[in-house]
Amino acid sequence: MELGITEERWQAIINNDATYDQQFFYAVKTTGIFCRPSCKSKPPRWGNVRIFEQASEAIREEFRPCKRCKPTGQRLPDREWVAQMTQYIDSHYTEKLSLAHLADMCHGSPYHLHRTFKRIKEMTPVEYIQQKRLDKAKELLAQSNKSIAAISTEVGMPNTPYFITLFKKTTGSTPSEYRQLHLKQ
Ligand SMILES: [Zn+2]
Q1: Considering 65, 90, 118, which residue would you say is the last residue of a domain?
Q2: Are 129 and 61 in contact (CB under 8 A)?
Q3: Are strands 25-28 and 33-35 parallel, antiparallel or unpaired?
Q4: Could you give the strand order of the β-sheet that contains 64-65, starting from the edge strand earlier in sequence?
Q5: Which DSSP helix (H) or strand (E) runs through 82?
Q6: What does the pLDDT look like over 69-104, one tens digit per residue?
Q7: Is 35 among the catalytic positions?
Q8: CATH number of the domain that 21 lies in?
Q9: Which residues in the chain land under pLDDT 70?
Q10: I want to staple 163 with a disulfide (CB 3.0 to 4.6 A). Which of 23, 132, 152, 178 is the partner?
């Protein structure tokens, strides 16, 4: 049955209290997702929460189970969670992509996401995003005549001086030098 949101349940949600995991599930109206109380996802707003006793009741109301805390079954192993983050970065690295946004999309706190990612991939999410951007920039430098500014924007780094600095620091040459060495005629 659907339960009300009480102060006690609310505290369990915002403190990710696992001792309540057998007692209820909470669904968030704005995202359409439901979670266990212990889920490390971003705390919802009080007014957007619905509380269910059973996962099946949330599903009947057309909420989807959270991929992070898997309220209908086993918890998501960290390796799979990191694979989700990687996948998200791979398809969004050309956009503005902050750790906070990534954490929202992958349902975890920025701190927890950063640590888990680093443990499994041996680099931080931010380093991984930069690597993706620089790899793409190298490809564009070697295969196109686009300007350095256009390339830096295209790979998600609209601040061109910063892009040049990071490129040089990582590869040992400036984007122009790199292009001279690698441009296919
Ligand atoms: Zn969750």
Answers
A1: 65
A2: no
A3: antiparallel
A4: 2-3, 49-52, 25-28, 33-35, 64-65
A5: helix 78-92
A6: 889 876 677 888 899 899 999 999 999 999 999 988
A7: yes
A8: 3.40.10.10
A9: 74-75, 185
A10: 152
